[in-house]
Amino acid sequence: MSILRVVCGEVKRTAMGTLLNNPPRPPGESASRKRKLAAILHADVVGFSRLMGEDDAGTHRALGELRRAADPLIAAHGGRIVGTAGDSLLADFSSVVDALSCAVEMQRASRAVWNCGSASILAM
Fold this sequence. Notes:
By secondary structure, the chain is α+β, with helices and mostly antiparallel strands.
C-alpha cells in the first residue's frame, strides 16, 4: 500500500499516510513527544560459528578481548551499548560521525585481537 500518491502533480494522502502522520496517543501521553535522533551501530564477528567450531576456547577468549577493547571505544565516542547477544553488539550514538569513528577504531581493534592483518573480523 502506498502512503503517498502523486496525482497530477498534487500529493494526496491516503488513510494510512494520515494515520502515520497523526498516530494515536496512548492514554495520558502529552501531545508533544520527545524525539531523539540516533545513529545505530550493529557489529558482529564474521564467521563466528566457524571460528567456535575450530577453536571454541580461543574464539571465546578473543571475543572477550575484543569486547574489552570495544566497550571503552563506544563510551569514548559518546555511545551507549543497547544490547549484546553472543558475538553481536548494538550501540547508539547521538552523532553519525561519532558512530563511524567508533566503528573504524573497532575494526582496528579487531585486527589486533585476531591478528588478521588488513582483513576485518567485525561486520558493521
